[in-house]
Amino acid sequence: MYLCVCKAVSERTARRAIREQGVVSLRELSRSHGVGTCCGKCVPAARELLEQELSSCTSALSPATLTLAGGVAAVA
């Protein structure tokens, strides 16, 4: 499904940018893919997608799941 029709950016592309390229803000998503730079109708959906992805990334990186060499849990 398209997130930004004007720039032909799919939700999959935006999620990949967040997960693999380290995009953490709407500004970065706009700079890298043009999201929200034409008509702006996609901005609320882009913000929501960013919040969802970032919250899932941070929960996946909780201290309980991170381990250092030797099996010692990392503390944030």
Automatic annotation (TrEMBL):
Residues 2-51 form the BFD-like [2Fe-2S]-binding domain. Its cofactor is [2Fe-2S] cluster. It comes from the Bacteria. One of its GO terms (molecular function) is 2 iron, 2 sulfur cluster binding. It holds the Pfam family Fer2_BFD. Signal peptide: none annotated. InterPro entries: BFD-associated_ferredoxin, BFD-like_2Fe2S-bd_dom, BFD-like_2Fe2S-bd_dom_sf. The keyword Translocase does not apply. The keyword Nucleus does not apply. Keywords: 2Fe-2S, Electron transport, Iron, Iron-sulfur, Metal-binding, Transport. Belongs to the Bfd family. This is Bacterioferritin-associated ferredoxin. It comes from Sinimarinibacterium flocculans.
